[in-house]
Amino acid sequence: MRVLVVEDDVQLAAQLQAALGEAGFAVDVEHDGREAAFAGSVEPYDAAVLDLGLPGEDGVSVLREWREAGRHWPVLVLTARNRWSDKVASFNAGADDYLTKPFMMEEVVLRLRAMLRRSAGSGAGVLQAGELAYEVGAGRFLWQGRALQLTAQEHKILAYLMHHSGELVTRTQISEHVYARDLDPDSNTIDVLIGRIRRKLGQPQVIRTERGQGFRLVAPEGAASTE
Ligand code: CA
Fold this sequence. Notes:
Elements: E1 2-6, H1 10-22, E2 26-30, H2 33-42, E3 47-51, H3 59-68, E4 75-79, H4 84-93, E5 97-100, H5 105-119, E6 126-129, E7 132-135, E8 140-143, E9 146-147, H6 152-163, E10 168-170, H7 171-178, H8 187-201, E11 207-210, E12 214-217
Parallel strand pairs: 1-2, 1-3, 3-4, 4-5
Antiparallel strand pairs: 6-7, 7-8, 8-9, 10-12, 11-12
Helix pairs in contact: 1-5, 2-3, 3-4, 6-8
Residues 8-9, 51, 53-54 line the site of calcium ion.
């Protein structure tokens, strides 16, 4: 899942980028409000972490612009200010959650995952496709009840497919949502990674190829049951 981090404190932005990257997110960073408003309006993000006090344009205005541009992905607002009026303003502008500085990096990761889980419609915190389960909070995959060992890139692709289970997902969508802005994989790379994930999963196969279009994660019909 691809996340935009908007934070003018360069050191804090780098810490957020590192922590979220380690947690399996593809991360783009903006330090300026106007740049952030533009990036969020044109790039296909899955979520954003947004500071309120920014040069160029304040965070509440940035958020309002994203929402007006039809961007409805979840937004976690960060701020040093702990004023009730700021909270009200950011929730009114469309924020999904709020965190006051200073905070633990782990909490940002947990809240981001919780927001993405809610937007994928899973209150229970586990996304399921046949015998494949994704524990969103822990960021862990289980296949037929056993933990699945994936590389970082494989993990990102499978997590994106799980959040869009049953839907057609194109190679373009994968390259836009799994990779940060400066990384642009060719479609062959994606096919190679999908092939590796399939080999790790084995049978019954849950990733279907839609010829000429992309991929679809499906719960196979008549999946073997040991009961
Ligand atoms: Ca700031």
